[in-house]
Amino acid sequence: MRRITPLLALLALGTAGAQKVSLTFLHGFTGPDRPVMEGLIKKFNDTHPKIEVRAQAQPWATTWQQLPALVASGRAPDVAVINEDQITGFIARGAVSPLTPAELSGAGISKSKFFGPLFATADYKGQSYGVPISSVAYVMFYNKDLMKKVGLDPAKPPRTRAEFLRAAQLCTVDKAGKNSTQAGFDSKNLNTWGVSLYNNWVGSRAAYAAILQNGGALTDKNQNAAFNSPQAVSAVQFLVDLVQKQHVARPNSTEEAELAAFSQGKVCMFPSGQWYLDRFETQKMNFGVTFLPRVGGSVRDAAWGGSSHLTLLKQRPGYSADKRRAALEFVAWLSQPAQNLSWTATGSLPTQAAVASNPQFAKAPISGIFDRLGSVYATSGYPWVGQVMGPFDAAWEAAYLGKKTVTQALNDGVSEANKQIEQARKNFQ
Amino acid sequence: MTDHAPQPARHAARRGDAPRAGAAARAEPYLYLLPHALLFFVFTVYPVGYGLYIGMHRWDLLSSVQSFVGLEFFRNLFVPGTPQFDFFWRTLLNTALFTVVSVPLLVAAALGLALLLQRPIFGRTFFRAVFFLPGVLTVSVMGILWRWMFDNQIGLVNAAREALTGAPPIPWLSTEGLAWVPIVVGTVWWTVGFNMTLYLAALSNVPASLYEAAALDGATPGQQFRHITWPLLAPQTLFVFITTALASFQLFGQSLVITAGGPNRSTQSVIQYITEEGFTNNQISSAAAMGFVFGLMMLIFTAAQFGLMARDVKGTS
Predict the structure, then answer these.
(1) How far is CA A187 from CA A26, A264, B248, in A?
(2) Contact present, A310 and A130 (Cβ < 8 Å)
(3) Predicted ipTM of the assembly
């Protein structure tokens, strides 16, 4: 640092602002989102003559494997995008540099303008480490025609557990035309189903939301797995009962089967990732999108979400202060409402209320969830997301398939997760 | 090569040629070996050694200290109660089960197809291509295809079964045991063509005169196969058996895509578990230790098989 500062001062004097700061930017938007990101970077470079951002896109998994080596060798990119399931791990291992309140406000980044839980995804032990630029969420698609047919108002999708259950019951109709609340209903021969549940990790995000809605959490304050709390058991039990007691969801189903059933108009409500939006729009279905109803309990609204965060990594000693300033300027610019609005073209959800209220969305089906985007929760905040989510997904699978009771499945999952956490903890000592 | 190569060098030294030339001659064979040796050290010996080093440390590139833990991660694999003990052996058993079931199928089906397609039937080349082609698909394409075929609700297999017999659908993908069916069937469909090609090549080397002589002696086709084809194909069968068994032990993509290792980890392969431990759980050292132990097992297995093959080839030549 001491050797570089006079040099920088000289440069600053001699070239009087003509000197460009060059930034490297590593991100994983390699699909159809890549041209959108490239367009944004070009726009930044065109409007910021003193900074040049050079971006590199590569698959996320490659980045997760390379980042430790890049940081350890002092060759980390100036800005990198890290996703919600990885970020706390990298923070806890010291790979990410904290963004001080002074830096954030200096760059014009205001935490309060973003959706709270989304921004907090990259927080750890009271400090901020990233700014969200991209977000996906678990939502509930519903078939408007089917709802109308059974006497429900498609303009008012269910919000509470009671409304949801009623909608699911009315929608579950057997071949003779009787719904699941009527006498003589034949649950073995069904024409349409109420709601989709399924056994993979996407399916288990419904259970995640239900637990949060009931005031539960996946981990406790010591970051140990705790998804077998009474709140969690009761929330997951409600979902499993939809299959086993209410017969409004199919047993033994898969995501593909439910997706096909919803596409063919055989199921009323299909909870899944918002990324299916495009598919249903292309099919010209008459569908709506709503926030996941409070199926788990009435404590709060909640749904699972995934997100990508702009981060500044730990750099070698003597890293140029100009670069850090320029990097912050880039982060601030890329997360601004105008850029975030462009970014929603990739299918991402708005990261802040100012974007969600843009008239562009007024008629879009997805705007049905915008009033509750502030209740989207990522799985982050503890460094061992893999150790918690793996056993949690397995527990959901066992409970949904009826292989174990809900209590047994969740207890087994917690005990497996905590054994793994106990070992992972040693890495952080 | 190494047995014979040094000999001229020894002769030269005995005949008392210039010592310089002797040294050069002695070095010569090693120079030929050097390029491969270099690659072998850089890409095999060094990574294996480094893996061992990682397995004996609590290794994290980002940590300032990589503390030495000795055999802790290896010991985990042999101490009941640790997740590593439970899952490593369980997934190893899963993989072994897959190998035991799929290898005989892959060998028998390949041989059967080769015997059929070796005959001068109409459209022979076309059918050879048909059976070989699936092998060019990536594992993800193959996996998705067979996941769809065996889907619990919308799968073609269940639909056909219902149409033919009226029986209710079978939940293939979510029933322990049954979940292996799409993986094994898919793998056979996917890879049988390669072994078939090996057998076709071997069959074309069996002299036709043997069959003619046997036919003259009144041997039935069954007897011809039993006493001519099968014994002459023995070295090929062993080769196919070993390469297929090794490939089966490396099961990864098929179960990952078709069942994601479920239900209840019953189809998770050992490589899939090692990947999970390393990259999902971020336990690189533990994964390195497992990889090392698994590699060692494969080495012993291969050595045993090579021993068998060498004995057999000697016996038939």
Answers:
(1) 53, 20, 42
(2) yes
(3) 0.85
